[in-house]
């Protein structure tokens, strides 16, 4: 099991570079299923979930060449022949986002067998809305020994109003609709930048899409899509994580190659805490403490779909909240079990209580180093942030969770002065 050893106390100083967004790369890689031509994607991050997606696509017959280390991280994907349109359980159980191949597979081949994703650390995370949408588009769905099998000669455009706002549900059905017969109108769609990024790729492939990034998306189905080249957005959650790292350590950090317009809710909240932010075109400089460099003050958050405060930043913000003066309420409205970082933060000396969907953080609490356990991707990031300001050496276990979504995390942090190193075998290096 990989571990991190982090010695707290160093302010982060200098420039830290943001990688491509994992949650854009995953649907964009799945979109390559929709054409027999080659799709070229730039700025793909070197994280475990991308490797899992590569395995998934190649297991179905695709040729995938991940472009790490090459200029622009250029990845080539070609789904000329999909000899085995099955998303096998051994892969799906390691990454729920595998369900993103469902829509493209049935649109391209008329059949898809996808292992039903099991539960997940942060919540049940069903895909009932993906399924309901595909049925509305004419697919027949049967369940067979833990697999979902969807069939359709050709999907038909449909008018769908999502019961709940779902990011990958919107993405899955958007991809399916591009090759459906006729027009589709989807309402109550997710407005996340990752949806807009996917729509930009699909449009470059010849899809006819209007309204991506708003809650109503209109798609005119076409008979075929062609190859394209597309650059993936910067990762707004990685950027947000680094902004908090600069704030919590009292540093002066330039978060470079990010997209500030995707970070509006977090920027507003950090400024409410008294964090100083200088927002540039594609970078944000973060300095802790108010204009007089004073203490940070508490500010409440409540997670919402984009453009509200992102659930994927909730755990990281809670670590910061332990270092602000006053009482912070953190309400998690998207997932039913996304407070697993709380017990670990309490073990480091934080003062947090939970009632239903709301955690109450009383600060400022000096944090102590401890041996802690990572439970999911963003909880892991939260514990690293706490360890950066704890006295002494914190040992974080099961950091493979973090490797799923943060590229070269410890190297990037070390590059701006953090005392962090990995123990055990190292992901991504031969
Ligand atoms: C995406 O997950 C992200 N993953 C998540 O990021 C992110 O936390 C989440 O959106 C919310 O922003 C990817 O994009 C790969 P949802 P997704 O469908 O699409 C319920 C990370 O840290 N729901 O928007 O799976 C669901 O249970 C990950 O990078 C249904 O009930 O999330 C949840 O309560 C974690 N039925 C809510 O909707 C459905 O069919 C929002 O889920 C689908 C979803």
Features:
alpha/beta, disordered C terminus, 4-stranded mixed beta sheet, single chain, 430 residues, 24 strands, binds ligand EPZ, globular
Structure description:
- The chain is α/β, with parallel strands linked by helices.
- The protein has helices spanning 22-31, 48-59, 89-92, 102-109, 128-136, 167-177, 193-204, 236-248, 264-272, 314-321, 340-347, 377-387, 400-403, 409-414, and strands spanning 3-7, 13-17, 38-42, 63-65, 75-78, 86-87, 111-115, 140-144, 147-151, 159-161, 183-187, 208-210, 216-220, 228-231, 252-256, 276-279, 283-287, 301-302, 326-331, 351-355, 358-363, 371-373, 393-397, 419-423.
- The structure holds ligand EPZ.
Task: Tell me the layout of helices and strands.
Blueprint: E1 3-7, E2 13-17, H1 22-31, E3 38-42, H2 48-59, E4 63-65, E5 75-78, E6 86-87, H3 89-92, H4 102-109, E7 111-115, H5 128-136, E8 140-144, E9 147-151, E10 159-161, H6 167-177, E11 183-187, H7 193-204, E12 208-210, E13 216-220, E14 228-231, H8 236-248, E15 252-256, H9 264-272, E16 276-279, E17 283-287, E18 301-302, H10 314-321, E19 326-331, H11 340-347, E20 351-355, E21 358-363, E22 371-373, H12 377-387, E23 393-397, H13 400-403, H14 409-414, E24 419-423
Parallel strand pairs: 2-15, 3-14, 6-7, 10-11, 18-19, 22-23
Antiparallel strand pairs: 1-23, 1-24, 3-5, 4-5, 7-9, 8-9, 11-13, 12-13, 15-17, 16-17, 19-21, 20-21
Helix pairs in contact: 1-2, 1-7, 4-6, 5-6, 6-7, 8-10, 8-12, 10-12, 11-12
The chain binds ligand EPZ.
Ligand EPZ is lined by residues 23, 26, 97, 123-130, 164, 166-169, 190, 194, 311-312, 334-335, 377-378, 405.
